[in-house]
């Protein structure tokens, strides 16, 4: 696989409740990252990927897989060429990189992330 899922975001309408739940049930220790209300629970040295907990922009609870790509523009172009739709335009995460969200032709929402520490 050349562009793997490297991250997953848990969008929640109630960040404090979700944080308490995942900490109690799975031992996660979400910490602020990039913004005070964007929390990350690192996978650590074992198996798995990091998980982000954040407020849902539209109030809808959902889990969003995030695919790491070499070029955000190229990946977004391919998404559109193959029937997908970019639904959140590219944005910058300072010191981390750039991202956007798209839906595939069946309506599944997915994130894209391009690493760029200079962002």
Summarize the SSE layout with pairings:
Layout: E1 5-12, H1 15-26, E2 31-33, E3 35-41, E4 50-55, E5 62-68, H2 72-81, E6 85-93, E7 97-103, E8 109-115
Parallel strand pairs: 1-4, 5-8
Antiparallel strand pairs: 1-5, 2-3, 3-4, 6-7, 7-8
Q: What distinguishing features does this structure have?
A:
single chain; 119 residues; alpha+beta; 2,3-Dihydroxybiphenyl 1,2-Dioxygenase, domain 1; 2 helices; 18% helix
CATH topology name of the largest domain, in short, is 2,3-Dihydroxybiphenyl 1,2-Dioxygenase, domain 1
| Spans where pLDDT lies below 50 across 5 or more residues | none
Going by helix content, strand content and strand pairing, the class is: alpha+beta
- Give the CATH H-level superfamily of the largest domain: 2,3-Dihydroxybiphenyl 1,2-Dioxygenase, domain 1
Continuous helix count: 2
First-residue to last-residue Cα separation: 26 Å
Question: What is the global morphology?
Answer: globular
Question: What characterizes the major β-sheet?
Answer: 8 strands, mixed
| Widest beta sheet: strand line-up | 2-3-4-1-5-8-7-6
Mean pLDDT: 93
Order of helices and strands: EHEEEEHEEE
Identify the CATH architecture of the largest domain: Roll
Summed up, the domain count is 2
Q: Report the helical percentage.
A: 10-25%
What is Rg?
A: 15 Å
Strand content: over 45%
**Number of strand segments:** 8
Report the CATH C-level class of the largest domain: Alpha Beta
């Amino acid at each position: 696989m050349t562009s793997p899922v490297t991250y997953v975001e848990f969008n929640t309408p109630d960040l404090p409740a979700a944080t308490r739940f995942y900490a109690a049930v799975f031992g996660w220790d979400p910490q602020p990252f990039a913004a005070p209300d964007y929390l990350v629970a690192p996978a650590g040295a074992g198996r798995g990927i990091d998980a982000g907990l954040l407020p849902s922009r539209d109030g809808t609870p959902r889990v969003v897989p995030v695919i790491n790509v070499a070029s955000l523009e190229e990946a977004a172009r391919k998404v559109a060429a193959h029937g997908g739709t970019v639904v959140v335009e590219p944005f910058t995460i300072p010191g981390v990189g750039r991202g956007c969200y798209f839906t595939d032709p069946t309506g599944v929402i997915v994130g894209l992330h391009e690493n760029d520490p200079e962002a």
